[in-house]
């Protein structure tokens, strides 16, 4: 199974940007058909945020469309989530995973607050 380590989170003001990274090991992300980013806010269930297929097809949660962009770099074996125009409601722990899901990593905390 692939091992995934998320990074890049932090505290940002509303309207700001962050780029999350998901470094994979144990398997090439080029061989993984679908990769996804998920998030879990305090007191809420984990939800999917964005998915990306090996063919470059992407899909996004309605509330992040036009603000978030998922991408993958096979050379670096890394999946990214570029997040722009961040809102307080984007505050959550963000995770990446394969689809279907394998083992979850520890995630990276994103806090949007003034």
Q: Would you give an account of this structure?
A:
The N and C termini lie far apart (39 Å). This protein has 114 residues and is mainly beta. Strand 4 and strand 5 (47-53) form a beta hairpin. Helices cover 0% and strands 50% of the residues. It is built from no helices and 10 strands. The chain has strands at 3-7, 10-12, 18-25, 34-40, 47-53, 58-60, 68-73, 78-83, 92-98, 108-112. The strands form 2 sheets. The protein has a 6-stranded mixed β-sheet, with no helix packed on it. The protein has a 4-stranded antiparallel β-sheet with strand order 1-3-8-7, with no helix packed on it.
Straight-line distance between termini: 39 Å
The largest β sheet comes out as: 6 strands, mixed
- The side-by-side strand order for the widest beta sheet comes to 2-10-9-4-5-6
Indicate the percent of residues in helices: under 10%
Instruction: Describe the oligomeric state of these chains in a short phrase.
Output: single chain
Overall pLDDT confidence: 96
Keywords for this entry:
114 residues; mainly beta; six-stranded mixed sheet; four-stranded antiparallel sheet; 10 strands
Strand and helix map with partners:
Layout: E1 3-7, E2 10-12, E3 18-25, E4 34-40, E5 47-53, E6 58-60, E7 68-73, E8 78-83, E9 92-98, E10 108-112
Parallel strand pairs: 2-10
Antiparallel strand pairs: 1-3, 3-8, 4-5, 4-9, 5-6, 7-8, 9-10
């Amino acid at each position: 199974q692939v091992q995934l380590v998320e990074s890049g989170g932090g505290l940002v003001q509303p309207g700001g940007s962050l780029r999350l990274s998901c470094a994979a090991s144990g398997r090439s992300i080029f061989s993984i058909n679908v990769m996804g980013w998920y998030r879990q806010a305090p007191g809420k269930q984990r939800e999917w945020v964005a998915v990306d297929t090996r063919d470059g097809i992407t899909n996004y949660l309605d509330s992040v469309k036009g603000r978030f962009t998922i991408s993958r770099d096979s050379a670096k074996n890394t999946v990214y989530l570029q997040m722009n125009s961040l809102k307080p409601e984007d505050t959550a722990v963000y995770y990446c995973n394969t689809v279907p899901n394998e083992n979850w990593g520890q995630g990276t905390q994103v806090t949007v607050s003034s």
